From TrEMBL:
PANTHER family for this protein: HTH-TYPE TRANSCRIPTIONAL REGULATOR LMRA, TRANSCRIPTIONAL REGULATORY PROTEIN
Presence of the UniProt keyword Transcription regulation in the record: yes
Name listed for the protein in its UniProt record: TetR/AcrR family transcriptional regulator
Molecular functions (GO terms): DNA binding
Chain residues forming the annotated DNA-binding region: 28-47
SUPFAM superfamilies registered for this protein in UniProt: Homeodomain-like (SSF46689), Tetracyclin repressor-like, C-terminal domain (SSF48498)
Keywords: DNA-binding, Transcription, Transcription regulation
Annotated HTH tetR-type domain residues: 5-65
UniProt source species: Pedobacter paludis
Entries under PROSITE patterns matching the protein: HTH_TETR_2 (PS50977)
Domain of life the protein comes from: Bacteria
Length: 195
């Protein structure tokens, strides 16, 4: 890795939690320089603008989460266990275990919805990738007869994603972990009813 690549990686690693907590609009160049200890010139010597830093920070946050989720899923033997792994991993968002600031998909989707098309497109691709992964798990579960074959894999994937992201939003908004637990209890019952 070249010095320039190391510097870019350093900037992304240091700023990714800030973008995740403060959002694109809320993160200033001063936040970036304070987090990295680098000058504005050093930042702009490695990135054309704040947009490039934000896009790289989202990629970093998302890939970090995907790695953790995939590791948890690999520990599971059953399809239901793999689906329930999402619940377990996302639980750590509420206590800061994976990404500072919570779920980067939810945070960035809300932040970039109408204001940043390139960032919105990255989030859309992330959600579609997540949906595809769940559909694949469900299809495997149907093949192995762990999940009833009259279930719609896409509907299951969208329901899981909506309940997780909605649960995070509601529990953070109300500042009540018990709301997350109630919603995740419903999601666990839903997943267990698929077989």
């Amino acid at each position: 890795m070249t010095k320039a690549e190391r510097t870019r990686n350093f900037i992304v690693e240091k700023t990714a939690p800030i973008f995740n907590m403060k959002g694109y609009a809320g993160t200033s160049l001063n936040d970036i320089t304070a987090a990295t200890g680098l000058t504005k010139g050093s930042i702009y010597g490695n990135f054309a603008n704040k947009d490039e830093v934000a896009l790289a920070a989202f990629d970093y946050n998302f890939q970090n989460n995907v790695s953790k989720i995939e590791a948890e899923i690999r520990k599971q033997d059953s399809t239901k266990g793999k689906l329930l792994a999402y619940v377990n991993i996302y639980q750590s968002f509420l206590v800061g275990g994976i990404s500072q600031g919570g779920c980067p998909i939810l945070n960035t989707a809300i932040d970039a919805d109408d204001t940043h098309p390139a960032l919105r497109e990255k989030v859309l691709k992330a959600v579609l990738s997540w949906k595809k992964s769940i559909i694949k798990l469900v299809e495997e579960g149907i093949k192995t007869q762990e999940i009833k074959d009259d279930n719609n894999p896409e509907q299951i994937a969208l329901t899981v994603i909506a309940m997780i992201e909605g649960g995070i939003m509601i529990s953070r908004l109300t500042n009540k972990l018990e709301n997350w637990n109630l919603i995740m209890d419903s999601l666990k019952k839903y997943i267990n009813s698929l077989g």
